[in-house]
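User: Show me a protein chain along with its predicted structure.
Assistant: Here is one chain, sequence first, then structure tokens.
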Amino acid sequence: MPIQTQLSWSERIAETIVEQCDNDGYHAFPSERWAYVQGMTLMAMAQTGEQYGKGEYIDFMKRHMDLYIQKDGSIATYSLEEYNLDQINQGKNLFRLMEDAEDQRYEEAAHLLAAQLAGQPRTSEGGFWHKKIYPFQMWLDGLYMSSPFLAQYAKKFNRPELLDEVAHQILLVERKTRDPRTGLLYHGWDESKEQVWADSTTGCSAHFWSRAMGWYAMAIVDSIEHFPIHHPKRGTIIGIFERMCNALVRVQEQESGLWFQVLDQGFRKGNYLEASGSSMFVYALAKGVRLRYLEPQFKQAAEKGWQGLTSRLVEETADGVKLNSICHGAGLSLDRDGSYSYYVIEQVVSDSFMGTAPLLLAALEMERLS
């Protein structure tokens, strides 16, 4: 009998995601609406299909997207008037669907999401509010939700002025949230300085949350690949990305290669090595090296992080790949005050797509880099 080649990590993770679904492949996701975690998971699945020539993973993405994209291009459960950046993220899958579509519904859906961003409420300097219900607030999370979509939309539909918009958002939030001492970025910034979590002088939240910086790191590497090399802000964005990655390497836990939930607080009581942020950093570092946005020495940090994930936080069981130590969710609001104690008391879970999808993306990039 021929020797069966072992599946790659990414294929094993993708198979686990499929197995977690019901038999019809429709009901795995934790909510029944168009949403950002589902969108990231579907994107990771489709990328696995493309990388390994497995059309069933692309079909998996299409089946789930088709639950929402209507014949006229409207999106079920989506409301433009929410002006919620999270709702843009799932739209990244539309570009892959447009390639094979004979109708216009995916394109119309993309235009609808772009229309939201055109009217998105803004700070005085033009920064997108994270949501309409969060006035004058920019969160690092929102850059991942919206910027790569808008950059790819600009490229697809020949709208170069929208690349200028993407550059403006990426650079503005970095300027407002970067701590000059550590080089790390605070989770959020409130221009009005009205929120309970906002510093009265800077407007920034108090701590460096791992996944928030993970969202931002992924936002840069996923956006900049759509920029032409002659764009006047491309080099600046790549420069701040490398500067930020140096800061991330400085807080990488040396024994495990992973990153803490609160990045700069080490083994302070309650802090822990967190899976989703660590996966996002591995993905961003590996992709940055592969596309030459980062110098080659960052490959070592990516490899060390990947080794830490697979040896410490991942288990392979009869049910597939299991990922532990995932922060279930965190945000900034009246009851989510951005304090250290807040971030470390949020629920820690296993096998949430919030962590599994970044793990899959990290696996794909590490396999491309090897």
